[in-house]
Structures are given as C-alpha cells and as structure tokens.
C-alpha cells in the first residue's frame, strides 16, 4: 500500500494575523512531501509514526462532529497492519508536517469527502478548512485548518478573512535576481507554546492595536503586491513588516537570529519574517538580490522557495 503524495506548505504572509482575521497567502512547497505507507516490521521513525497514528485514530474515533465521519474500521485495520506516514517534511519547522498527514488521512478515510476535482465553491473550501481545523487540533491544540487545506488541494490559497478564502493563482516564477528563501535555524519550534504566547500578548491593548494598525496593514499590502507582481513595492512593504515583527514578536524569533534579522534591515541585503509560528524551524527570507543575501548569510543553510 502506498497513498498519494501530499506536499509541504509555506505561509508566505499572514502568520498569527490569520488567527485574528487578517489576510494570509499560503503556497504549496513541493520540495518536501509525505505519503501513507505500510510495512510488516516497523522501526525508528516509521514505528513512531504508526504509534502516533494510533493515538490520532483514538482522537478521530471520539470526535463528536457533524462535519465529517471516517471509515474507522478500515483506518484501525490499516494502523494495526503497520501503516505509517512516510514524510520528508521536517517536523516543527513551520512547513506543515502535520497538515500533510491530516490531508492524507482525510483523503483515504473520510466518508462523503469533498474531492479536489469538484467545483470548489467558497462554501466547500470553508467546510474543508473547518474539517481540517478539527482534525489538526489533535496535533496543535488549536489549528486554522489552513496547512492541511493547502496540502490537500495543492493550490495557492488566499485568506481574505476567516469566512472568505479562495484558491488563487500566483505570478509564475522568473529567472531574476530576487528570491523568497528559507533560512534554517537548525532548531525545532513547537507551535502550541508560540500560539499561547501570542494569545497572551493579545490581552494587551497596545499589542492588539499594533496587530490591526501595523501588522495587518503591512501583511495585506505584501499580499497584494505579491499577487500583482509589484516586486519593487513588495520589498518596501516586506521591510516594514520585518521591522514590526522584530519589534513585537521577539519571543518567536530564536535568540541567535535577532542580530541576523537586524543586519538584514540595516544592509537591505535581505529581510526576514516568521515562517509559521516561529520559535525555531525555518525563517522566511526575501531578497532583491539573492546572491547578495547568500554572501551575507554564508554561515547558514538557505533554500529557494520562489524566484522573482
């Protein structure tokens, strides 16, 4: 048995903001992927994955939801027969490792599932997002459902607000000098503690004001520029966003990268922002001249996501 492939995702813009109803833009990232597989003798990562699936099964079996039902007998049988999720998606890196797993389980075991081949109306997209949020909250405590949705559809998704999401197109990549890239912090981040820090900060009126008056406005401007291919304007807005994130999201940026972040803003060689919830994993970088950014960041592992 080998299931279809489900890809990683990158939330280009909108981390944390989407929890509070501002815009977001997520794109599939095909360098990393996962699929359901089976083996008789499990060891190492496969064994761990199988044990995790058994816990996930218990969670789904006790889910009291009118949204979705599963062929639980089949799922239990497959897990007992050595099913695991074989994935190259790094965990705790902000690129949707649990999202791809959730998408694969829904795809194989959900009854009356909404398929990718249907006409995906806004209502169907919202229903899928809700189903995935319910499923993925097993892993994170609270989930927007966006990672699994992105992985399941393998399409860029534009979040206008909680109730308004759409599949979208992004400008095709060019062989230019500019790039969006991943910077490897070489630390694992955990989503739940980071989201808890954010929720506590949201109790502060000044922080809430900053989210709505600065963070959300710069994020929305970045998304608009990116979708329209306004590269010059995009970098101006990414710089503003990078400054706001550095000033207000310090706990989510690993300590060793505060200086690296500041250096990008000072030299304009690159601008950094959070990739997912932060706390470790990948940091997302934007550079008008990727060669320059590579020089500045020569001590770090970089990976290109998109070229301008």
From TrEMBL:
The reply to whether Cytoplasm figures as a keyword in the UniProt entry is no
Keyword vocabulary terms for this entry: ATP-binding, Kinase, Nucleotide-binding, Transferase
Alphabetical list of SUPFAM superfamilies matching this protein: GHMP Kinase, C-terminal domain (SSF55060), Ribosomal protein S5 domain 2-like (SSF54211)
Q: Does the keyword Iron apply?
A: no
Q: What is this protein called?
A: Mevalonate kinase
Organism annotation:
Tenacibaculum geojense
**Which InterPro entries does the record match to this protein?**
GHMP_kinase_C_sf, GHMP_kinase_N_dom, Ribosomal_Su5_D2-typ_SF, Ribsml_uS5_D2-typ_fold_subgr
Q: Which positions fall inside the GHMP kinase N-terminal domain?
A: 83-147
A GO molecular function annotation here is: kinase activity
Q: Signal sequence span per UniProt?
A: none
């Amino acid at each position: 048995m080998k299931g279809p492939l489900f890809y990683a995702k990158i939330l280009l813009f909108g981390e944390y903001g989407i929890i509070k109803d501002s815009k977001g833009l997520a794109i599939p990232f095909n360098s990393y992927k996962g699929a359901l597989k089976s083996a008789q003798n499990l060891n190492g990562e496969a064994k761990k994955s199988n044990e995790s699936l058994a816990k996930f099964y218990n969670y789904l079996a006790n889910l009291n939801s009118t949204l979705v039902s599963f062929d639980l007998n089949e799922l239990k049988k497959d897990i007992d027969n050595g099913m695991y999720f074989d994935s190259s998606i790094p965990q705790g890196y902000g690129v949707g490792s649990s999202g791809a797993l959730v998408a694969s389980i829904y795809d194989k075991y959900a009854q009356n599932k909404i398929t990718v081949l249907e006409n995906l109306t806004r209502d169907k997209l919202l229903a899928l997002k809700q189903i995935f949020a319910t499923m993925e909250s097993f892993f994170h405590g609270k989930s927007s459902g966006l990672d699994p949705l992105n992985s399941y559809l393998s399409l860029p998704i534009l979040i206008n607000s909680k109730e308004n999401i759409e599949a979208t197109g992004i400008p095709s990549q060019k062989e230019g000098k500019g790039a969006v890239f991943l910077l490897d912090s070489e630390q694992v981040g955990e989503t739940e503690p980071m989201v808890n820090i954010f929720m506590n900060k949201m109790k502060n009126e000044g922080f809430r004001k900053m989210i709505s008056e600065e963070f959300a406005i710069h994020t929305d401007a970045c998304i608009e520029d990116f979708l329209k291919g306004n590269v010059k304007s995009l970098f101006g807005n990414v710089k503003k966003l990078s400054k706001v994130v550095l000033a207000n999201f310090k706990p989510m940026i690993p300590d060793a990268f505060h200086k690296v972040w500041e250096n990008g803003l000072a030299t304009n060689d690159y601008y950094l922002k959070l990739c997912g919830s932060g706390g470790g994993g990948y940091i997302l970088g934007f550079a008008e001249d990727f060669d320059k950014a590579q020089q500045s960041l020569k001590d770090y592992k970089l990976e290109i996501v998109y070229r301008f």
